[in-house]
Description:
The protein is built from two helices and twelve strands. By secondary structure, the protein is mainly beta. Residues 1-147 form the Flavin reductase like domain. Keywords: Oxidoreductase.
Amino acid sequence: MSLFATGVTVVTSLDDHGEPHSMTANSFTSVCLDPPTVLICVAHGTHTYGYVEKNRRFGVNILGDNQEELGVYFAKRPEDRQEGTEYHYTLAEGEIPMLEDSMVFFGCEVVGAHVYGDHTVYMGEVKEVIRNEEHNPLMFYKSRWYHPTDRME
C-alpha cells in the first residue's frame, strides 16, 4: 500500500468533554456526489472510533503542504503528543471541529457504518464544505511525506 500516493487528512470529532479531538488518516475517499458522501476508515483501538460512534458526526480536514507538522502530530496517540505544535480549531456547522487553514474541510453526518475486522468504515453525508486553496496538498508516498513543487490548479 505504500506505493499508493494519498492525500493527508485529519479527522476531527468532539471528545466526551466537548473538546476537539483529531487523528491523521489517509483512508478517505469520495463515495458519491448526489448526495455528497465520503468514506473514512477508523480503527477500533483509537479514541476517534469511540467519539465518531457516539457523536455520529465527523470532520475531514485535507492538509496543505504547509501542515506536515500537524499530520505528524495527529498521527500519534493523544498520550504521545508533545507540546509545541500550534493549531487552532473553530466549530463548524453541527458542532464539528475544523482545523484552521486546512485546504478543504468537510463537515459530515454518519449515514452508514460497516464493521470489518478491526476497523469501521463510516459513510458520511457532507453537510458543509469550506475551501482554502492557498497551498498545494500534502501527500504521503512510500511511508514518507511528499510536497508537490508545482501549484496544482
